[in-house]
Amino acid sequence: MPDTPPDGRAGIDAALVTRLIAAQFPHWRDLPVTPVEVDGWDNRTYRLGAGMTVRLPTAAGYAPAVAKENRWLPRLAPALPVAVPPVLAVGEPGEGYPYPWSVRGWLPGGTADREPIPDLPAFAVQVADFLRALQACDPTGGPAAGAHSWYRGAPPAHYDAETRRCLAALDGEIDTALAAEVWEAALAAEWDGDPVWFHGDIAAGNLLVEAGRLTAVIDFGTSGVGDPACDLVIAWTLFSGDSREAFRRAVRRPDADWARARGWALWKSLLMTAELRAEPNRTTSHRRVAEAVLADHLRHRPAPGR
């Protein structure tokens, strides 16, 4: 994770945002600045009037994502089936705030972890359609997977040592033998396709919903060009049963991609479970994901001799 200022949030508040807007975009200086109801950690977001948001990185390690999104979101947007954040202006460091920042258009809707979705299989197909459209975008000149994407889009082997430490720490708490098998399968399923666009954080909190339908995808800070397997993790973090199968059918990725995706999901769930062991109530969702991944591996594991 990047270095974070002592207060963890770079000293960002509505007063700072008001000063930045007044200094750099005076034509918006009379618009009210208010916190959003659901905020993130990598960036703080504030409403600016009724139709805009201000997005400010909270630490130096998150700042490069601003330039990446500002450059690429306008190029990707026309080819995507749902909205992505429209970039309206780019701010510079100032008023004691040290990082570039941006003004975006407000996108209506609530996040998929908070809004009712009556037909989850149909929603899963909509997410798959978005991913297929994203993967079809021209990757020429796009940012190759690496540190800027927290190595999403690169081989999961980047996190091999960390995963093995977590397996050792959780021995006796989960089926570490099966988990190690899943991880080895992910490492063995090497990606040899052409680089394509990936989002890098297809999670319920980054999917906007209105009337049960996907209307927008936000937070492209971990996006890049490389292996799209990391974007399949939502199969276990949001979907299950019929919706997971609908997503699998609609997204149309080969078995090797799914093996790597199970590795990505397992790494994160093991890491969070190990780090939060002192607070068991906070590990419930991560343990659930790990169990779902292990069960999925057993279901799709080739029969002996194949």
List keywords for this structure.
Phosphorylase Kinase, domain 1; five-stranded antiparallel beta sheet; 9 helices; 2 domains; 306 residues; Aminoglycoside 3'-phosphotransferase, Chain: A, domain 2; alpha+beta; three-stranded antiparallel beta sheet; 10 strands; disordered N terminus
Question: What does this entry show, briefly?
Answer:
By secondary structure, this protein is an alpha+beta fold.
User: What distance lies between the first and last C-alpha atoms, to the nearest angstrom?
Assistant: 41 Å
Highest CATH level, the class of the largest domain:
Alpha Beta
What is the CATH H-level superfamily of the largest domain? Aminoglycoside phosphotransferase (APH), C-terminal lobe
Q: How many domains comprise the coordinates?
A: 2
Query: Roughly what percent helix?
Result: 25-40%
Largest sheet: 5 strands, antiparallel
Structural classification: alpha+beta
What is the CATH third-level topology name of the largest domain?
Aminoglycoside 3'-phosphotransferase, Chain: A, domain 2
The CATH architecture of the largest domain can be given as Alpha-Beta Complex
Q: How would you state the average pLDDT, rounded?
A: 93
Coarse shape: globular
Strand order of the largest sheet: 1-2-3-5-4
Count, helices:
9
Write down the Rg. Answer: 20 Å
State the order of secondary-structure elements, H for helix, E for strand: HEEEHEEEHHHEEEEHHHH
